[in-house]
Amino acid sequence: MALIEDLIAAAGAADTPVREIVAGPDWIMVTAGGSGVAARPPAVPGDSAGRGTPDLREAYRHRPLGDLLDLASSPDRLEASLGIAALNAALAGSQPKGKPRSFSIPRAGGKTVALIGEFAFIEDLKRIAARVITIHSGSDDIDAGSDDIEREISRDEQNPDGVLAGADIAEADIAIIRGSTLVDGTLESWLARTRHCYTVVYGPSTPLSPLLFAYGADQLVGIKVNIDDVTADWIREGRDNFLACPGIRPVVLGRDQQPHDQQPGDQQSR
User: Containing H/E element for 54?
Assistant: First the structure.
């Protein structure tokens, strides 16, 4: 996975000791020099996603951050989630500041928009876009019987990255990719399939690294953790709408612009 390898190489901070690991039902936060968050996958047979916070803390706390970064490309989804949270923690120290700015889906009016993953703002988007295509990312649970699903992406063992893109994605003017596709190892493939259109990587799992622009992203929407304790409590309690947590600040970073902080209150993804 060249994307993850490049992100880790650029992030640095591998020798920084891990100060804390917090695991809730939906999110994992790793704190070293800074704090980073990633979506926690549901438990499935054959991987370790059912492990609890005490196990994670016992196994990795006080070890070098690099030990967790090495897990980012693991086929075990909990390990990969830990690795991506560690990556976001490593990147936290290098996130530049910007002026507050509200996030809106770019140029969506009258356009065809492909949502790769499940997003809470789909109904709002339908009111302004000419067409909304919802595609199963493989990392979320979408009701395949829903009218919103125009094409469901299947997973194929013969495909090395596990993603088969349908014809609909080629018709998109804008693609919005859920950040947690980095956890299941498919983000790089989705970016390759959406180079023809304006592509947004969206959600708290998103690494705020300009390297993603080289792989095809045009805009990144992620978060910066400002208050560790407040964010940790929110994660432990499994509270809804993570972007409403007062311990975090959403951040928007565009290919051709300086990064900007996002105003609180926008919809979340993972």
Answer: helix 53-60
Domain spans in the chain, listed from the N-terminal domain onward: 2-92, 100-262
- Kindly tell me if the per-residue pLDDT of 191 is higher than 80: yes
Q: Which fold has domain 100-262?
A: Rossmann fold (3.40.50)
**pLDDT at site 151:** 32
Rounded Cα–Cα distance for residues 168 and 74 (Å): 30
Q: What single string gives the DSSP state of each residue in 199-258?
A: EEEESTT----THHHHTT-SEEEEEEE--HHHHHHHHHHT-S-GGG-TTEEEEEEETTS-
Q: Is the pLDDT of residue 27 over 90?
A: yes
Contact 63, 82 (CB under 8 A): no
Distance CA 217, CA 234 (A): 29
Rounded mean pLDDT, 229-240:
94
5 closest CA partner among 94, 72, 102: 72
The strand ranges marked E within 81-195 are 100-101, 112-116, 131-135, 174-178
132 and 148 in contact (C-beta within 8 Å)? yes
Contact 86, 65 (CB under 8 A): yes
The DSSP code for 41 is P
Q: What pLDDT, on the 0 to 100 scale, is given for residue 122? A: 87
- Average pLDDT (43-69) is 72
CATH 1.10.150.20 assigned to domain 2-92? The reply is no
Closest CA to 199 of 213, 183, 218: 218
CA separation for the pair 264, 243 (Å, rounded): 7
